[in-house]
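User: Here's a structure from my thesis project, written as structure tokens. My advisor, Dr. K., wants to see whether a designed sequence matches the one we expressed. Can you design one independently, without my sequence as a hint?
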């Protein structure tokens, strides 16, 4: 079914159109245009065989005097033939695209059938063979991987020379201590304190603290457990020799609670001295 038709730009000025306008007025020209579009949609070859004059006027939407429209079209030769066997004059010449639609559809179907008939079977066989080859390759590869895994998992009586050296890095913070000479309970308390102040130990931090404790152990007589307990008690992130950190001055001394308490005591002492001075001044004034 055609969706459009070809109308010449000279259609409004064509002598046949002018005659239709003089005989049937504008409604006749409009019905003519509607008839041409109906033919393109329903009779693309332009053959109106089997349609009586009344049928043609109904298809064109003619609402004037019955028979006048078809008679006028036949007089000016927009229609050829007689009642029941009319054809549109030179339809194939003026609308070749619509007139040849059936031939184009048939040619396209024949070409598609010729294109898909033999090559489709060959393509199916080729795809089947490719899939079979792919499955065989995948099965062989999977079998090789399974065999390797089986060989690796089987016990052997020979020592594995490729085993890495034992890891001497201090183990992460946990229930035990990272060194044999370090008290477990003191270390656990230090670790818990670091978590509580939202400064949990990383592996790097553990290594550095162990190294520092080792140095304290070798260069002083301090008990490592007491060193750790000192930091835990004061909420210190680092470790120090016993008494070595307590004499520090400035805002970094002790934890924040101790600092606040010290400032509060200083404020109270100052306020007390001010009150005493006021009382003495008041006594002298009296």
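Assistant: Designed independently from the structure alone:
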């Amino acid at each position: 079914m055609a969706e459009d038709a070809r109308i010449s730009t000279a259609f409004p000025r064509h002598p046949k159109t002018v005659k239709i306008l003089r005989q049937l007025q504008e409604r006749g020209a409009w019905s003519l245009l509607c008839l041409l579009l109906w033919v393109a949609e329903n009779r693309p070859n332009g053959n109106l065989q089997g349609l009586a004059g009344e049928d043609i006027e109904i298809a064109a939407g003619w609402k004037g005097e019955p028979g006048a429209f078809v008679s006028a079209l036949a007089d000016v030769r927009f229609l050829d033939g007689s009642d029941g066997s009319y054809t549109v004059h030179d339809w194939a010449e003026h609308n070749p695209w619509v007139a040849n639609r059936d031939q184009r559809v048939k040619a396209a179907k024949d070409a598609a059938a010729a294109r898909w008939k033999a090559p489709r079977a060959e393509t199916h066989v080729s795809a089947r063979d490719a899939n079979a080859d792919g499955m065989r390759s995948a099965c062989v590869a999977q079998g090789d991987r399974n065999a390797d895994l089986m060989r690796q998992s089987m016990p052997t009586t020979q020592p594995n020379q490729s085993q890495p050296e034992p890891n001497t890095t201090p183990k992460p913070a946990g229930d035990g201590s990272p060194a044999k000479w370090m008290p477990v309970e003191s270390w656990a308390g230090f670790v818990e304190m670091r978590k509580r102040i939202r400064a949990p130990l990383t592996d790097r931090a553990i290594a550095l603290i162990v190294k520092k404790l080792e140095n304290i152990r070798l260069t002083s007589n301090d008990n490592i457990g007491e060193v750790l307990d000192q930091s835990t008690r004061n909420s210190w992130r680092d470790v120090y020799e016993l008494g070595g950190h307590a004499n520090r001055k400035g805002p970094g001394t002790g934890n924040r609670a101790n600092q606040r308490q010290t400032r509060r005591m200083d404020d109270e002492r100052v306020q007390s001295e001010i009150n005493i001075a006021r009382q003495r001044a008041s006594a002298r004034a009296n």
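When you compare it with your expressed construct, this may help: The chain is about 60% helix and 5% strand.
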